[in-house]
Amino acid sequence: MADKLSAKRQRPGANLVLGGTLTSLFLGIAVLSLFWTPYGVADINIANKLNPPTVGHWLGTDQFGRDVLSLLMVGARNSVLVALVAVGLGVGLGVPLGLLAAAWPGLVSETLMRVNDFTFAFPVLLTAVMITAAIGPGVVNAVIAIGIFNIPVFARLARGGALGLWQRDFVRAARLAGKGRTRISVEHILPNLTSMLIVQATIQFALAIVAEAGLSYLGLGTQPPNPSWGKMLNEAQTFLFLAPQLAVYPGLAIAMAVLGLNLLGDGLRDRLDPRLLRLP
Amino acid sequence: MAPFLLQRSAGLLATLLVASAVIFLVLEVLPGDPALVMLGINADSDTLQALRAEMGLDRPLLERYADWLIDLVQGHLGTSVTYDVPVSDLIGERIAVSLPLALLAILLSTAIAIPVGVVAAAHHGRLLDTTVMGVAQLGVAVPNFWLAILLILVFSVGLRWLPAGGFAGWDAGVGPAMLSLLLPAISLALPQAAILARVTRSSVLEVLREDYVRSARAKGLSQGQALWHHALRNALIPVVTILGLQFSFLLAGTIIIENVFYLPGLGRLLFQAIAQRDLIVVKALVLILAAAVVVVNFLVDLSYALLDPRLRPGVRHG
Amino acid sequence: MSLLCVDDLYVDLPGGVGPVRVLDGVSFDLPAGGALGLVGESGCGKSMTALAVMGLLPEGAKANGRIRLNGHDLLGLPDATLCTIRGRRMAMVFQEPMTALNPVQTIGRQVAEAPRRHLGLSRAAAEERARHLLDRVGLPTMRFPPDLYPHQLSGGQRQRVGIAIALSCDPVLLIADEPTTALDVTIQAQILDLITELSLETGMALLLISHDLGVIAQTTDRMAVMYAGRIAETGPTAAVFGHMAHPYTRALFAAMPQAAETGARLSAIPGQVPAPGRTVPGCHFADRCRHAGQRCRDAPPPALTAVDPDHVVACHFPQARDTVP
Question: Which of A144, A140, A134, A118 lies closest to B29, judged by CA?
């Protein structure tokens, strides 16, 4: 008991700081790439291909002589965009669905959640592969696939949290005051779910980055000539003997971004949980 | 036990039915004209008509779906357009790679994660625990396909100990075949093991606080004995849940890992079928993979009863 | 010489700002075959005393003083040595029968575990012993086969299993920590009778912990009233009931529902037990005591002094015999 308390006091701080730093770095680089990269990502210079790191090219060049640092920076932007839209899709559709199911318990919501439960049969990559097979590869389809995967995650979370809140006195009081179920869901339930949803969104963001990288690695996500971390890894595999460093940077970028988001999620959870318990 | 099994099996069938309907909708209805998708816009109209007729695209949707289901039950998965062989033959051939790979990966992951999680819990709050969990946090963040490439870099390119890819084939003997599955299995297993170790640790820590562990200590068991004889089996219940969930990630993982290592398994077949727009193969493969996930989760459900007598159907005594 | 001799026991638990003292110089003796009751409100240190004797204090706890079993000091013994004593020489019955048994093991196996470990019995012999023990605690094999799981039993039946486990190696000391608190009133008496009967039959000593003076009166021959980690009053049970010298003992008695039934007014004790670790200069009970004077708040906590032969009390103003309500 006592050591649990002391552990709680030290760790969330460390998680939050490290996770926050890594995540800000990742987001910062993505934003920076909008305005400035050391070189253009389309600047091909075959004479300078597969160079090791130099003063001019801090991380060297790829098989077309493009600057790897610039590619990584634009790749970060690509990851953020895909993950943002995909998680946004999951939150935007999943949360209302979950709130709806909690506000009107009954056969419809029961069916809704059953369908929701069954979606676990389709891991994100399988969903993506299926959608790609039906409508072709591409970054938009990847976003849709990852987004679809996220909908049930948020629907389940929102429903679970909302069901508990509907039993609370302040919600009952609002009911007695004559407020409608929709209005209560928006005014009373949703605000109290926010911190929980933020924590989950952070973790889903990390998952979305890995999923996008995986799809792009397979050639089913971001298409050339747009740079993406997954595609960079795929290309690097061809040159493992000549330029092994090319296979290290993009993976390290993915791992650091995911680590940062996971730590941030853990840290936020530790920080926000007590507040969740102290609902009005 | 019988009604319990019956009820669960009915649920399993219902889930499979819904899954098949979704797959049918996405792969046969969503593309508009699947025959056109498969042959490309440059296909000549005779070939197109022939394929449409073969796929039965001229018939009503519901009838096509029902036919597909009936064929499935009879084991007919259709004929691949690109390979011109029955899809079931293709799958039979490729599953001999994917299944051993998945089993090896889950075995490795469990064999690593559970002892690590338990040891970390036993050293709760001490240096060993902190270190192990730090490594696990890092492990969770490493995508399996990058780990795969790093392993190739070290063990194939650098040390030249293991093949960088390809499959020796079971004809070459179990040894070489397993050797070509080793790096792929490790790449799949380690990130999973990181998650599993974290779950095991927190589950064991929770169970160690239970009254019956104190009871065991009061009987004269040491902390270690109480952990192994009394806490572990109780702690494994949530671990098994995660293990079941991980199986689906693992299957999805094989799609990508088989491509990293050029292994002729189901995942690579799926990838190739998409590249060649062989929707018949894609449909069958997606269904099989989804069914595998559903069945494994069904088995996990049943295994709870094995681990936890409270979940076994039966009446209260006395 | 006493079987169990607790002498000047201090226990500190790790806390947020520093160690928290939960036992503050507890001493008592329990002769072989005797029955000692520890009574007090929750948080007074009764359970902590039991856990200290068993050597099962929470992680990080520090114990000082002496706990002698048959003259051997248990404090400071390595855990491996304690493991040969726990379950063999001293055993414990816990408060919560619902959670004290392992849900995934059969009751037979849980009863047989200690005999196999401590008595070196074969599996078959241990199982036979378990059947016999279960039978002895009122769970005959015919109706309660040893392959039942705890969830298939009621609370009272589970507590019987707990008693069978404790008795399984014929210990010389049985510690029962609120063994009936979690049970229905009708079952409480049965379990209490069983414990008394078994301790008389086997000659083992009983350390019974309870917040219920009725239970203590019914079961024990000596009693100690605890308050805020200290012994407030101790003596032969009959003597203490005959002359409650500490105001706290009287307050406890007055708060008993049974006392109310017999005509006395049911009075809750005003105020609360001071939070452990809070340093109070004087008597810890002074804030809640009707008889407290300036001395109680300023002077160091009172030491145990005899009011009758063999009956001691820690109070500056012990109550006279004739004022029993």
Answer: A134
